[in-house]
Design goal:
Chain B: GO terms for molecular function: 2 iron, 2 sulfur cluster binding; metal ion binding; nitrite reductase [NAD(P)H] activity. Chain B: InterPro entries: NirD, Rieske-like_NirD, Rieske_2Fe-2S, Rieske_2Fe-2S_sf. Chain B: Keywords: 2Fe-2S, Iron, Iron-sulfur, Metal-binding, Nitrate assimilation, Oxidoreductase. Chain B: It holds the Pfam family Rieske_2. Chain B: This is Nitrite reductase (NADH) small subunit. The complex is a heterodimer of chains A (852) and B (128). Chain A contains 26 helices and 38 strands. The longest helix of chain A is centred in the C-terminal third of the chain and has 18 residues. Chain A has a five-stranded parallel β-sheet, with no helix packed on it. A five-stranded parallel β-sheet of chain A has the order 9-16-10-11-12. With 852 residues, chain A is α/β, with parallel strands linked by helices. Chain A folds into five domains: 171 residues, FAD/NAD(P)-binding domain, CATH 3.50.50; 126 residues, 3-Layer(bba) Sandwich (FAD/NAD(P)-binding domain); 94 residues, Enolase-like, domain 1 (2-Layer Sandwich), CATH 3.30.390.30; 68 residues, BFD-like [2Fe-2S]-binding domain (Arc Repressor Mutant, subunit A, Orthogonal Bundle), CATH 1.10.10; 231 residues, 2-Layer Sandwich (Sulfite Reductase Hemoprotein, domain 1), CATH 3.30.413. Chain B is mostly beta strands. In chain B, 0% of the residues lie in helices and 47% in strands. Chain B is globular and about 35 Å long. Chain B has one domain: Rieske Iron-sulfur Protein, CATH 2.102.10. The N terminus of chain B is likely disordered. Classes of the chains: A alpha/beta (852), B mainly beta (128). At the A-B interface, α15 and α16 of A face β2, β3, β5 and β6 of B.
Chain lengths: 852, 128
Amino acid sequence: MNSLVTPIKRETLVVIGNGMVGHHCVEQLIAHGALAHYQIHVFGEEHQRAYDRVHLSEYFGGRDAESLALCEADFYAVSGVHLHLGMQVQEIDRERKEIVTTQGRIPYDCLVLATGSYPFVPPIPGAEGNSRLVYRTLSDLDSIRAAARTARRGVVVGGGLLGLEAANALKSLGLEAHVVEFAPRLMPVQLDADGGEALRQRIEALGVGVHLSRATQEIVPGDEYAYRMNFQDGEFLETDLIVFSAGIRPQDALGRSAGLDIAPRGGVVVDNTCRTSDPCIFAIGECASWNGSIFGLVAPGYTMARNVALQLAGKPYEPFTGADMSTKLKLLGVDVGSIGDAHAATPGAKSYRFIDEATSSYRRLVVSPDGKRVIGAVLVGDNSYYDTLLQYAQNGIKLPQDPSSLILPLSDGAPILGADALPDTATICSCHNVNKGAICCQVDQGCTDLGELKAATKAGTGCGGCSALLKQVFEHELSARGVAVDKSLCEHFAHTRQELYGIVRVEGIQTFEELLAKHGRGHVGCDICKPAVGSILASCWNQPITDPLLIPLQDTNDTFMANMQKNGTYSIVPRIAGGEITPDKLIALGEVAKKYDLYTKITGGQRIDLFGAQLHQLPDIWGELIEAGFETGHAYGKSLRTVKSCVGSTWCRYGVQDSVGMALYLENRYKGLRSPHKIKFAVSGCTRECAEAQSKDVGVIATDKGWNLYVAGNGGMRPRHAELFATDLDDETLVRYIDRFLMFYVRTADKLQRTSVWRESLEGGLHYLKDVIINDSLGLAAELESQMQLVVDRYECEWANALNDPEKLKRFRTFVNDGRGDPDIHFVKERGQRRPATHSELHLIPVTEEAL
Amino acid sequence: MSQTTTALIQTEPTHAVTWRALCHRRDLVANSGVVAWLDGYQVALFHLPQVDDHEKVFAIENKDPKSGANVIGRGIVGTLKGELVVASPLYKQHFRLKDGACLEYPEQRLRVWPARLQGDTVEIGLDS
């Protein structure tokens, strides 16, 4: 009997282009089982596999090529797809159905063009080298970075979406950035005149120069900078580098030379099935022209990719009938949104506008002639309105009685379109075409975790713009099914840290027992809620953490006011404010370290860490340290650690302010402040930034007029640059802003949340934070300041407090019934100091040589 | 065993034990732990003045099996799903106070001793 299985000869499918759209197409082909019908070859011109171009500017913010990649390195190989990187396809031979590369010919049965686009550079005499950079690929960014090394100022030609992204990139490279736009406003495609004006004001406030209605005639050598750009009206601008971002052109050269139909304005012509004039060849993304239009956004490209993948997999598909070009962006930190008919081009369309000149915010709502539906919108300054407006526009939801309420400030009680009002067909994630129905379906199947939901549906994993809405819909659907959305701290408190903070403050609660009795469950608590509540009580009332009622709440480090190391011994870090120390104190530290044989190391925060003390030695050691004028450094606490500083104007020829003096003041003001996580500061005396303030929770950098304040940076596992918060502050204002910032953080952050993560979780972002801290938009400033003052006034060195109280010292005994030390602690000598013995060294140590 | 006016015997010994005084009540720290020396053993003592309306003392081995360091007595006491536990201060795994079982890693187990308060004396039960 013959085998029932007939080997199927698989056809060959070639995908040209490994950008976001080409990659998505392959992903979709794999997901829909197309590998059963085709062996797939993918050609990418770049050497890097597909990466996230939407977040390209983060390449200058610390992300590397690998972290921008859209898939794991072995994704193609594991899936059985042949990926050819760094290989340009030179020709499509349609007669022989072969593609031609430098490595030879490959036959195809089906071909997908996903070659994307290239940046358009207007022909300007003198544009070459560093005056003719572009912003599209990772290698373009490498060129920009190289050019920026010796540059002070950079210009972007083009004030559209990508141009502003490029300006942000220049700014993050430390250049003075300028944008030159031919049109009379920024983002002319997406914004109307008033919107463009609001955006200009905001961007100029960030220190980016904006030059509108300027056409560059020629580029010549400059006087003060490398180049001079001469404009049409006799004006000029000098710069060290020029990035062109004046629009994109479809990369249609292969289609053109192969004789495929090309649209008058460029792009390979495709129909509703994304087929070109050759039925064996498809084109998707920015190289394709549908109905005379090129779609320069990722979402329509993904829609085309899905369309083609489903066809090739032999599955039902929906025809491509154009795309919604609505966009929500954060450009240079400014929210910009544009929906549908933003310019009110529809005959008879009516508009509602909201303009706030004080904060340069602008919102426009465009409604249909009958006044019943939203057909377009423009947002500048606050995108929190975007999701609701987009749902109104996309789903034809009937407008409320007073349509203007949709764009008026939210505090006026605007009707928010709840997740329940959305139909199942409402698109939540447009990048991956996930609608509300698909989310409900996952919830019905038992999904209760947002991460799982994202993995299952891919929703929120494209541009990420839908994250907030996705979370809202997900949580709504969970609660609609009676699933409690659990935000509890632990099994003893059904509250978040923020809620507990509010309760403690409002009810004036002073102890854990009281809080547990009134608002918790059980009589004991656990190792999650005890330290969290201990920290809240300390933040609010700043009673000594050595109080008997507070002691059992603390982690061992807080309890014994030292840092436990792997062998159970402790390290000790006295405060050395600002890193400034007298020789006498340095000698005293050395003497103590020598006397107790403590391993000594300089920390990253300009202090000295003494390791290897046993529990019962801590009071003696601290007695001597306090005698020598030291106080506790809180290295053990979730609290202010150090304020690092450079020597500043006192010694340094470049210094413009006394950074050490300011660091000392700040460290002494905030020492002892308990917070959701540790806090680090730094103060630099000039823009050279030797104190590395931009990597701290609070960074202060001197200017000739005062201080620039940076917030919410950190090093560690996930480094984040601090963001510029306010500029040229006088001493008093600086301290006032830091008071408010820290207390607002203490008040609203989650347990063990650093300022960076907290800041990223703030809806409304940096702008919102500035509103609260600088403009006092919540009316909280005075309260925050007085709360901080209370903490400052109640400061007391915890070690001095403990040493004065024999009752408290009782705890510092290795054994309560015996005076000996821990006999299991062993040290060996290394580089002239002792360190814990490793497991393998242990049996070599005779019992009689205990290092005590 | 009967409850005295001041304390309840914490862990009912299942076999005959000899009670031995280990330290004084004032050596204990309420809702927290201290460590006592017992002929070469290190015993962590946790004092809970009010659990289910009773005063209790637990005695549990001080050596953390994961790190090999003698630190259990410096952990935080709490309840997890109704069971009294101590969290190791180094790697935060939880041990049940009543029998020393580790909730996260079954292969880690701490020795426990019967313990009680006799007036102001903390006593520990040793196999006779």
